[in-house]
């Protein structure tokens, strides 16, 4: 049907709160690829529902790291949920506050972003 066989790519930056290893879990009904700072974290381009896991060590807190998530759905319910946790951060959804579309500072903003 028209709702089947879709794909999406989310590309931008991710900003961890802590400088430590994060465990990622992505719930998906089909395939997932996740890349952080050009390192392939998850590579599960499958045709079955599952929770896919991987981890990444962020060397600095509150810095922007390049991020890319590729997702595809074949048939049935389309699903993609991304979770993370670390020794200092409880397991939970990666909220939009930690995902950024670009790493440029806004003129006169009191907040400065630094990318890795």
UniProtKB/TrEMBL annotation:
UniProt xrefs under PROSITE patterns: PA14
Organism taxonomic ancestry: Eukaryota, Sar, Rhizaria, Cercozoa, Chlorarachniophyceae
Residue ranges of every copy of the PA14 domain listed in the record: 1-98
Top-rank taxon: Eukaryota
Pfam families assigned to the protein according to its UniProt record, in alphabetical order: PA14 (PF07691)
Protein name (database record): PA14 domain-containing protein
